[in-house]
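Continued from yesterday's entry.
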Amino acid sequence: MAAKASLCLLGLTLLPQAVLGFKWPIDNTYDKSQYKFTFSELYMYNYEDAPFGLTLFKPDIHMDLHVTLEPDVADLHENYAYSLVAAAFHVPEKHVANLDTLSVNDYLKELASATDLCAQVYDKDKISNLMMHSVALTNKGNETVYESHANMVYEVHNTGIQSVVLEMCYQTSPDSTVKMAVADATVSFQGELTFKNPYGYLSGIYFGYIPFEACRAIIFALFGALYIVVLILKHERVIKVHYFITAVVWMAAIEALGWFMAYVLMNTGGAPYCCPFPPAVVVAMCFEMLRRTLSRALLLIICMGYGIVRESLTMKEIIMVSVLSLSYLVASVLVDVHDIAEINDLGRSTTHSMWWDFPVLVFDLTFLIWIYLSLVNIMGSLRATGQTFKLTMYTKLANTMGVFVIFVSMLTLVIVLAREGTFAWPWQLYWMQTVAWEVLNLAVLVAVAFLWRPTEYSVLLSQSQQLSMNDDENEEEVDIEDDGDMAKRGVAGDFSLEAEGAFDIEMTGMGGMDGDGDEEYDYDQPGPPATDNPMMDEGGAAEEPGNGDYNTLA
């Protein structure tokens, strides 16, 4: 979220900062001593280099500002002439090739500080395709206020970093050719500054979010639709955990769709990311926070055995999981709001404090440690009791998580090395640095949904315990004991099935009805007795969920 929030305005101050802005409305007044201002959308595409050939517009930077200057009374002189000098330029790639976005922003600060537009002094090696525009400010009846309208269009001919610098200047007389920077004045800007790429208003380094979120939304939507079809076709096999999985999958799909729509709307309409937030961004943020929280909660209760090893959690476990999830959600909201407010603090009145990030880190680590310990514990228990079928499911889940954790770790290492300057990370792929966890979430959620999909054994697995394979492995007799649950289905007593190649199953009824009669059925006969036993198919043969015996838990 913080990475996405960096799309916002990063600054408009004396020292130059980046404005990753789209179509940015400006209505600000700056106090005395601020006479130089800079804006940048950092990386922009020229027409020929448009991604995917999306050449909908001619890329340009358009400045349309009403400027007001009120010099300090002590510096006023009737012969002074005031003006606004604007410069737009491209920064050659060789100077920023190994810099990340924050370092590029610092570089632009230094470059603008060393540039004197009033005297037309700048480093020609670090600035290319320069365009300068000067507008004279006039006094309209007010002796202390000078104003004018500045309109400039700069065409982008070079792909890479583009920047705009504004400086307030004065001359000692209208005929003087020497301009100097206004050292002490109040400056106001009202208007709009627009950065437009060939495809729209979205900054070049963030264009990749559009196809990424589109693909993520499509994958989740298709998988969610397929999962619902499976639930409908096997509705009699559905257990509670399947509804939880479905809800999280569709929430992830809606979240991805929300971000896709938010980026598309910002790209086509030019609305800034913040502040205030566009409605589409607010919706996407809400679903992202809920998805992150519920995804962690789902994985945790799965690793605690819910839906496979046991039918339900204890009240204490439910309360603990709920409290942790709610705490994580609240902490995430608070840190995201703080980060966005900090990014938009143009005056940089406060420094970043890690204390805001600390609660989220603690709750995230709590989730990870709890998930890990629960997974290790449940796999150890299944291994000790010889429940090989369930153990196989959890082993596949653990392997899937392990593979993608390794993938995310390697990607994180690559990102760190790139930021340290070990190698250059292409700016066109900067967006990939923030989506590793989204890919991990997608992979783990799909893996959980697939492994815990409704099958013939879903209800049986949640209600049964496989008997150890260490005892009586060669038995061909299946004994089924039922104290009541089978009686509810029209069958009472103990069942004994003898068939060649049959596996052994022992079930203890969940109910409490009376029934002492014993009956034997020959399942080699044409039809089975009247029963809804999920272990029997329509022909009366036992359906084999796996090797070994299952004992229904009372």
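--- second protein ---
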Amino acid sequence: PAAPPPSLGAPEPRLASYACLASHRSSMAMKRCLTSIVLGLALLGKTALTAAKDDAAINENLLKWFTAQGGVIDGVTVNQFDGMGRGVQATKSLSSHDMVLKMPLTMVVSRATAIATATTDAARYIYEDMEREEDVIALFIMREKARGAASEWAPYIDALPEFIPQAAYFPRSAFEKLQDKAFAQQASERGQGISKRFKKLQDNIEELVDDLDAQSQKWFASEPAYKWALAVVSSRALTFRGKRYLAPIADMFNYSPHPDTRKAASGEFFLTHHVLDTSPSPSDGDGAGIGPSLTIHADRDTAAGEQLFEDYGDNTNQIYIDHHGFVPDHNPFECVYTRLSVPSNDGVLHTDLARSARLELLKIMQVPTEPAPCIRNGHGASWPTQAFTWLQVMTLTDVEAKRCTMAVSNRRIEKSCPLIAGYGGYGGGGLPDSWEPSVEQLSMILPGASARVGSFPSTYESDLSLIRQQAPSKQRLTYEEALSVKYRIAQKKVALDLVASLEAQIDGKAWDYHTKSSVEQSVETSVEVDAMGEPIEPASAVGDSVGAGAGSGAGCVAGGEEGE
């Protein structure tokens, strides 16, 4: 890099293969290590060459290819943006729900596309038999990338980022700086699983490259190439009805939360603006007659010349750092896991008799005695159903708890059970829109929320200072370490705001989570770009953007359900 970004620090290209040189002594093992390093360096070489390309030419070729394949573009174009790299720009004034892209499914990468366009029988059979759909798409774009200019997908492949940071591939130092052992373990295991999957796929990979030249075969058959392709799918592919789709240009919208406050809706918001039509021939409107298609609508008003952003969905920052390679400055769906503990005996509401009856009810309802739901703030509408149910049970008298236990056990409507009479279900019927926790219930949450704040080994203020002190002349965090610090900053902000909102409501004060905060609202950590608009640092690139609120255009929605 010509100059490292002042906030996130310069990335240090690393290959896990280097570590094996110190751990293996046999000549054969050493040879495998050296081979892996050479292949990794070859991949980095490809990155450097691609970074030198003319982004304007890449964008122009992409747009021409898109329309030549039958795609429709209305009111938008692809452009470079300071600090974000490649994104989508409005060419006219757009209103929410305006159609901006429409494309036939024949130009969307999926299992069906891979099978239909396979250039060899071996490739077609492999795509048909492969178990994981994301592996089908990954191997498809690996092969097309290896084919270079000979691939009909070359204009799209050229526009894909060359490096996509993902928590699954973080070094140990970055995992430690997350200050989240459970998530670090989860991400590490995902990375290990990906390496194992590559080894199992090697036979298929060798068959796929039989018709390619020797140099392309070496790149295609490398683990770095597989991890790159899988990261492309993980960060950019859309999910409809359980199937994955890699949609050109639709995967280049950078992230920004929707300006209007909205509730989590299990992917409904995403599906409103991303419409998959599998009917054989649309009969009217733009793109009529193109057959099965994918249509993208703007999710907000945008002025001509401005970047058109997209809300990726109801996701926590774990999704963004592990699959998209960035941590947004503001995420209305970020939450912190907070332990809820059974109140001790106070001789009034929380007696031993009531405690026993409540625990029996929780057992029958299959709710943990001391759950740790992920909570955003102290308002009822944002609470997980499990937390709502636990809080309701913890305020039942022993008589009410016994009645509810009988009703739930017998699956019958019992009006004497508040969980059923008040909320229309068997204790798990969902979270009512009008429900707000009582002061007693808020008081049950406060100890766990306060304990969560105190559990971090560093403070919010010290973390802010650590990020803001990053400069070329000083000892810096690696890029992955800086992302980890930003992740924990966001966690602490939510935890501090949760405690503040609980304390305010317990004291009878109004608290609007969307306009008030106990801490600063954002951390400036956008990445610098060079004169051509390309992020200076090669670790940019999920959707050609990282840092503050930018990312790939494939929104993971509803925890991996519709619209992921």
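The longest helix spans residues 181-208. The radius of gyration is 26 Å. Will compare against the first tomorrow.
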